[in-house]
Write a structure and sequence with these properties.
The complex is a heterodimer of chains A (505) and B (486). With 505 residues, chain A is mainly α. Helices cover 78% and strands 3% of the residues of chain A. In chain A, helix 7 packs across helix 8 and helix 14 packs across helix 22. The chains are: A mainly alpha (505), B mainly alpha (486).
């Protein structure tokens, strides 16, 4: 257990090493990156096997950092953070495998990539709100350079939009936390201390604080109507970064909502609960319909990410033990599935066909040209639709069951979103992989393309990465209790119980 | 006033070092220029840095504290920290000395920079209106000369003249304000003034005096609406001069005026922490802060020139610093000093990168930075640290400075009054600021170079940049090093 903080240090050290290695050769930088992510993931898995679920946070490090403001370097872990740490390790490792074909400024790419990962590990391990915020911001800036330099389609616009949305969200978080800290005369930045301070204020101020912090974090989780950074950012990003964005970075926002915003003031959260729930439902359905109308393959996945993250927010808004545990499970599940979908679209298909227009892809019989990606995408699509056997099923079901207990109408509305998700996923599968080569002129062009320039075969890093992700979604789909057994006890802690009981009225 | 000259000499050892060092630089150059003209730069640089080092040592190790020379000087933790801070910043700025092709008189430049530094250190310790004014003028007059030092560049001459005209005007206002304060209280000593004003109550004359003083403060801090000199001076002045004006001068000015307001006018602050606002200097400072935050951040969006962009960002930071001045009285000056000092470090660094780039060609437009990561990875990485610190990204020092200052201001009264609202405005505008800072970094780190040669960074410049970047990271990770001083 005590090795978990090393994930942060290993990632940042790896970033520096990758930068140094990159000046020698690209291959060295790749191996440094892979070794770093594997080491960090190994540390997490080793800790996970010895993990005994408890209600309380299990202390890792707790030392005074800035005593003048009562800020502590406080790292701790519970079942929820461990779930997300496992996801981070998996997504980071697979992301390195899917960026094996980066050729330009490789050292810098992996240095920024690993710095981002280090920030993500830090957020999931932080028990002090200030520390969490610091890591949260560390994770924001590298994204700009990763997208603006190594991205595609309108990348500078997408990168700037993404970073400004993230940063504006984090500014809201900072403002809210400072408000609670100063106005409530908190003695420090621990979540419990901030919650006590917030409790000293009157209800309108509490609502203001929780609204700022929640909306700030939820911006990064893709909450409607602040989600617009997500599709453009995902599309502009290089494959590994899309995978990380959808896979773990959006979870940072949801995790911040759960860990910091909601425990701050349970009474204020109860006031905001219906608003959040309806925004989540609108996000699920609206993003689903938008995904249905996209011409660009990657935009379909981008909007589907927003739609699936809506379920996470709905689970949080449900605010009972079932709904919130479902939300955490959905964070894991969506992280794996979205990573898989982006890997297929961005790396396996786009890097070979050099088009993402569904109309162009339709003219190529990709299920014959690229059988492995087609298989992976179909499986990932099924998982994404929430078919039993894959992780999407238990997580979305748990959320809907939990939300039903709070307010059946929300669950009903969100359930229609599942249908929409099935529709856009099936449409994407059909158009992209099982298009018929049209007869006549288009037929000649499509066939000619396929035969004149045979598509590169799928490489071993891609296969390994895809198999890892598919294995994870199947494992969790078949044995969701393996994660729920970690998550459920954590929700018994006083910080969570305060709003779980307060919100379920 | 009992004249304790020994005590005065001991307390002023840093200033003695600076002045003697400046004279030494000039004298050595007088002989050296005839015999070894090729070495003039190195000699001036080494002597200047050595002087600053000794002065810094004297400032850090000096055991004088408390009221010196009948209370003309006050050596409290703030004064000592500021003296060390301005000397350090001046040393970093001096290390950016341009090469012989663009600076014909290195010794004069170095000597004037040392005089300016002694002005800053005196400002930091001044507890007396007359000394405050003299120190300010010593610093300002030196800076006017430094700003116009590049005789080959019309822009430099313009910078010097504009700075001089604005500065002269501000000095006139300040002197008028001081004379009114003296007339009201019959004393030049800050504590005595504060004491007598407390018993007098507000008078219209006092309002005039306060406004006059604040005009001069606004000029020194480059706060709106007294900012119009800043973009032109930043653009035209030689890089070390601009770096000094933006960093050490600002730190010393903030400290001087904070002392003046918080000590001399301590009972005439009024309040902006709650509604209704009480009349005093605080509402005026809040107004200037709001104007600076808005004008600086929005003005920077429209800039295509790096130096002008840095000037507008300086105006925005002045707004945040002025917010800190509002809270300095209640919660101590630690955060304010931390913010001003680390801001100075980042600015010196940014100008240092520009100075290094100027060895290879003029740097005006943002696109002149294009491809910096290929032309010099060291410069590109240092620039990233400085700019991200200015933008307030953790774990760099700029983030914690803002955080501590804003937390201080919110402690005044939460969101019950304009002070709290201004803090929220400042936090919201930091998202705007990130946009223009990223525009700089996009050029430096993302855009490829268009067949431009690699840049060889002179050793002293590289050392200054690495030290500044290292300090920004270290102070950002361990802010208690500075906060613990107060």
């Amino acid at each position: 257990m005590n090795a978990l903080p090393c994930t942060i240090y290993v990632s940042f050290t790896g970033a520096i090493l990758a930068l140094v290695a990159g000046t020698r050769s690209a291959g060295a930088a790749r191996f440094v990156a892979l070794l770093t992510t594997l080491t960090a993931w190994g540390l997490v898995l080793a800790a996970a096997t010895k993990f005994v679920p408890t209600a309380e946070l299990q202390e890792l490090v707790n030392a005074p950092w800035i005593p003048e403001l009562g800020i502590r370097y406080h790292l701790a872990v519970d079942g929820i953070s461990l779930t997300l740490l496992v996801l981070t390790g998996l997504a980071a490792t697979v992301g390195v495998l899917f960026s094996w074909n980066i050729e330009e400024r490789v050292g810098e790419f992996f240095a920024l990539y690993l710095a981002l990962i280090g920030g993500v590990y830090g957020v999931f391990l932080s028990a002090d709100a200030f520390l969490l915020f610091v890591f949260y911001e560390i994770a924001i800036v590298p994204k700009y350079f990763l997208i603006a330099k190594w991205g595609s389609t309108n990348r500078e616009y997408g990168a700037m939009k993404l970073v400004l949305y993230s940063f504006a969200g984090s500014a809201l978080v900072l403002a809210g936390l400072l408000w609670a800290f100063a106005a409530g005369r908190a003695s420090g930045f621990g979540v419990a201390e901030l919650a006590a301070a917030t409790g000293r204020l009157d209800l309108p101020q509490q609502v203001g604080i929780v609204a700022m912090v929640f909306v700030g974090f939820a911006t990064l989780a893709g909450m409607f109507p602040l989600h617009t950074w997500a599709p453009t950012g995902h599309v502009a990003a290089p494959t590994a970064v899309s995978m990380l964005l959808a896979g773990v970075v959006m979870k940072l926002g949801a995790y911040g909502c759960l860990r910091v915003a909601m425990p701050l003031a349970p009474a204020a959260f109860a006031v905001l609960q219906p608003w959040i729930a309806w925004l989540a439902v609108i996000g699920i359905i609206y993003a689903g319909f938008v995904a249905l109308a996209q011409d660009d393959f990657k935009f379909v996945i981008g909007y589907s990410s927003v739609s699936h993250m809506g379920f996470v927010l709905l689970g949080l808004a449900g605010a009972n033990a079932v709904a919130v545990s479902g939300a955490v499970l959905q964070m894991f599940s969506h992280g794996v599935i979205a990573g898989l979908l982006f890997a297929v679209v961005g790396r396996m298909v786009y890097d070979r066909t050099h088009t993402r227009q569904l109309a162009d892809l339709r003219a190529m019989p990709l299920h014959r040209l690229l059988p492995f990606p087609a298989l992976v995408f179909v499986l990932a699509g099924l998982a994404s639709m929430g078919l039993p056997g894959f992780s999407g099923f238990p997580s979305e079901l748990t959320i809907l069951v939990g939300t039903w207990q709070t307010r059946p109408l929300w669950a009903l509305a969100a359930a229609t979103g599942v249908l929409v998700a099935a529709a856009f996923t099936l449409r994407a599968i059909a158009l992209a992989f099982f298009g018929q080569a049209e007869r006549g002129a288009a037929d000649g062009a499509g066939q000619g393309n396929g035969h004149a320039h045979p598509l590169d075969p799928v490489t071993w890093p891609e296969k390994t990465g895809a198999v890892l992700l598919l294995g994870a979604t199947l494992y969790v789909g078949l044995r969701p209790d393996s994660l729920l057994d970690w998550i459920r006890p954590a929700l018994q802690s006083p910080a969570f119980q305060a709003f779980l009981t307060g919100g379920a009225s | 006033m009992n004249a304790d000259y020994i005590g005065l000499f001991v307390a002023l050892r840093p200033e003695v070092h600076l002045v003697v060092g400046a004279l030494l630089v000039l004298t050595v150059d007088l002989f050296n220029a005839r015999h070894l003209p090729a070495n003039r730069h190195q000699v001036a640089l080494v002597l200047g840095l050595g002087t600053l080092l000794m002065a810094g040592y004297a400032a850090v190790m000096g055991n004088a504290s408390g009221r010196i020379y009948g209370g003309v000087f006050l050596l409290d933790p703030l004064a000592n920290a500021t003296r060390a801070g301005v000397i350090g910043l001046a040393a970093l700025a001096l290390a950016l000395l341009p090469d012989p092709r663009r600076l014909k008189n290195p010794a004069e430049f170095t000597a004037i920079l040392l005089f300016a530094t002694s002005g800053f250190t005196l400002m930091a310790a001044a507890n007396h209106l007359l000394l405050a004014f003299l120190a300010l003028e010593l610093a300002s007059l030196s800076l006017y000369v430094l700003a116009g030092f590049d005789k080959t560049s019309p822009a430099s001459a313009e910078a010097g003249l504009k700075y001089f005209l604005f500065g002269g005007m501000a000095a006139a206002f300040l002197l008028f304000g001081f004379s009114l304060l003296y007339g009201l209280t019959g004393s030049l000593q800050l504590e005595v003034i504060g004491h007598r004003l407390a018993t007098q109550g507000p008078t219209p004359l006092l309002v005039v005096a306060v406004v006059m003083v604040l005009v001069a403060f606004g000029f020194k801090a480059a706060a709106a609406p007294f900012h119009p000199w800043a973009p032109d001076v930043y653009q035209g002045a030689p890089a070390p001069a601009a770096a000094l004006i933006a960093s050490a001068s600002k730190l010393a000015g903030i400290v001087l005026f904070t002392r003046l307001l918080a000590s001399g006018l301590r009972d005439n602050a009024g309040t902006v922490a709650h509604l209704p606002i009480a009349i005093g200097w605080a509402p005026v400072v809040a107004l200037i802060a709001a104007a600076s935050l808005l004008l600086g951040n929005l003005g920077a969006l429209a800039q295509s020139n790096v130096r002008r962009l840095l000037a507008y960002s300086a105006i925005a930071h002045a707004g945040a610093l002025l917010l800190g001045v509002l809270a300095a009285r209640l919660n101590g000056v630690g955060p304010l000093f931390y913010y001003a000092a680390t801001y100075g470090l980042a600015t010196v660094g940014a100008f240092g990168v520009i100075a290094a780039l100027e060895t290879a060609g003029p740097v005006q437009s943002l696109t002149d930075l294009a491809g910096l990561h290929q032309r010099s990875p060291l410069l590109a990485r240092c620039l990233a640290i400085f700019i991200l610190s200015l933008a307030g990204i953790p774990p760099l020092a700029g983030f914690f400075g803002k955080f501590a200052v804003f937390s201080n201001v919110l402690h005044l009264g939460g969101l019950a009054g304009p002070a709290g609202w201004l803090t929220l405005l400042a936090i919201a505008l930091s998202a705007v600021a990130l946009y223009y800072y990223l525009l700089i970094l996009k050029q430096a780190l993302v855009v490829p170079a268009a067949d431009k040669p690699r840049i060889s960074v002179p050793l002293h410049v590289a050392a200054a940049l690495v030290i500044a970047a290292g300090l920004i990271v270290a102070l950002g990770v361990w802010p208690s090093v500075i906060l613990g001083l107060f």
